[in-house]
Design goal:
disordered C terminus; 109 residues; 5 helices
Length: 109
């Protein structure tokens, strides 16, 4: 669903939409204390990884990984569980360069 929403912007605007969505997701997810927001953040990161990480450059990819690892220390078990899933999807994407989507502004890992 995330992919469909962001691909509504055609051509180069889609790349900008992916980058802006990623920034908002990570910015809100990092500072929010609510476990529901953290769970939504993890699910969005997993969705980004499952669609090939469009717009994720090396820096963004590293930020996703470090945030996901940090979230494994959260006291809420469900938060840890969804971040394990997100981390697995991100690592699988990082290990499989052929699955990564190259947009005009992204540099794959």
């Amino acid at each position: 669903m995330l992919r469909n929403a962001l691909e509504g912007s055609h051509s180069s605007a889609a790349s900008a939409a992916y980058m802006e969505a990623f920034r908002v997701i990570l910015r809100v997810g990092v500072i929010d204390k609510s476990f529901r927001v953290k769970i939504a953040t993890a699910r969005c990161l997993k969705a980004f990884a499952n669609i090939g990480g469009p717009g994720l450059g090396a820096g963004e990819f590293e930020n996703c990984l470090s945030y996901s690892v940090k979230a494994l220390e959260d006291p809420v078990k469900l938060v840890r569980d969804v971040f394990v899933e997100a981390l697995g999807a991100l690592l699988a994407l990082g290990m499989n360069p052929d699955a990564q989507v190259c947009t005009q502004s992204s540099v794959v890992v």
